[in-house]
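Weekend entry, working from home. Most of the wet-lab plans are on hold until the incubator is repaired, so I used the time to fold the two sequences that have been sitting in the queue since the last round of cloning. Logging both here for the record. First:
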Amino acid sequence: MPNNKKVPEQFTDIPQQSWVDSMMPPAWVPYAKAMRLDRPIGIWLLLIPGLWSIFMAAQLQDVGFLVLVFTLGAIIMRGAGCIYNDLIDIDIDQMVVRTKNRPIASGQLPFKNAVIFLTVLMILALFLLLNLTKVTVFLGFFALIPVAFYPILKRVTYYPQVMLGIAFNWGALMGWSAANFRLSTTAFLLYGAGICWTMIYDTIYAHQDKEDDLLIGVKSTALKFGDHTAYALLGFAVLMFLMLYWVGFREELKGCYFLAIWVAFMGIAYQVFYLDYNNPADCLKAFKRQAYAGWIVLAGIVLGRFF
C-alpha cells in the first residue's frame, strides 16, 4: 500500500513554478518536465564523464564541436531516459510521495503521447550520433542496453545503481572514441571512476525514498548499505580517486590535475561522513552538490593538459 506520510513540498515532484512554466507554452510544460528540463542536475551528471574524456583526448581545435554534440546529446538522452524510466515505473511512481505528481504518473502527459515523444527524442539522438566516428556510433547503440535494463533491476536487486553507473558514464567511452577513433585504458579508467562516482551520488539520492521503497518492495543500495552507507561510499570514493590518479599518471598530466582530484575526493569524503541519511532534504542537497566534484575533476584535466 502507498505511504501517505507528508513531506515538505520542495522535496516532492509536486508541480512548482520554474523557468519551464514561465517560458514555455502550457501545452509544452508536461513534456519539458517529463524530460526534467527544470532540474538540470541530471544533465550535468550525464554530461561530465563525456567531457572528461573529450578534454583528455581531443585536440584543442576539435573540442568545441564535440562539446556541443555531447551537450545536446546529454540533454536529449537524459530526457529520453527519464521518460522511459517513468513509463516503466508508472505503477511505482504513483505510490511514492516524491514521484506521484510526475507528468506521466499523474496523467498530465498521457502514456501514448509520452511514447511518441520518446520516439522523437531517440530519432534526434540518432541524428547527433551519426555525426561522430564509427566506433562512437557502435558504442552509442550499445548504450541502450543498460538504459533499458536499469528500471527493471530495482525490482530484483539491491544494486540497480551499478547499472545506472554503467549507463550514465557511457559518455566517457564515447567521448574518447569520438576524439581518438578508438578506446584506450585511460578511457576505461575514466569510465570506472565515473561508475564509482554514480554509486556515491545515486545512493545518496536513493536515501530520499527508502521508507517508500521498503513499503512497495523496491530495492536500492540505500537499503542494502543502511547504517554502513558512509563507509561504503567512502570506499567508492577511494576507488574513484585511485583510478583518476592512474589516469593522470598515464597521461602525464601536470600537478594541478592531481590537486584537483584530491580536492574532489576530500569534498566527497567530507560529505558522505557528515550527511544525515535520514533527512530527505539533506540528501537532495548533497546529491545536487555532487556535480561540483565532477566539475573540479574536469577543471583539473583542462589545466593539467593544456596549461
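Second, folded right after the first finished:
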Amino acid sequence: MSATDTDTKLSPLDALKERFPAALVSTLHFKGDDSVVVRKDDLVAVMTFLRDEAGLAFNFLMDVTGVDYLTYPEPRPKRFEVAYHLYSLRWGHRLRVKVQVSLGENVPTLSDVWASADWGERECWEMFGIGFDGHPNLRRLLTHKDFVGYPLRKDYPVKKRQPLSESDTMVDEMEQRLRFKGLK
C-alpha cells in the first residue's frame, strides 16, 4: 500500500520505511511507542512528510530536546541526539524522531515546518550547544546573556559559578512588550 494520498490511518514506521528507506538509521516499536532515528540530511523531508501525509497527520510538535550520551555505558556513534516528539491530533498516534549529532555539528531547523520548533530549538541550543542551521532567531531563552557553557551537557561542572548581569535583554524586551500592550 502506498503511503501517499491516502485518508486512512497509517502506521508511521511502515510509511517511513516505504517512503524513506535510505533516510532511516533505525526504527523501534516498544510497548506501543514508535521511535525512529533519521539521517540529519533527510530530517526536513521526513518531518514535512510526517506532517503533510493525510494518513499520518503529525500536526503537533510537542517537544524538541537534546540528549547527551557522554557517560552512556554503551558506545554511541555520536555524542548527542536531538529528539522531536510528534503527535497526530487526528489519528491519536505519537512518534519520536531522533537525529544523531556530533560535538560542533548542526541540525537543520524545523521552524519552517512547525512554528513551535522555534523555542524548542533555541532551548536545545542554549542547554546543549547544538546549533540549528537556518533558524531565524537562535538566541538565549533561559539563561542570561553572560552565561558561559551548556548546563545540560554531562561534562558541565555542577558547582560552576556564573557571573550575573544587572540587565538582561530578554527582560528589557518583555518590559517593552508589556508597556506596548498596556499591561504595565
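Plan for Monday: verify the second prediction. The chain has a mean pLDDT of 91.
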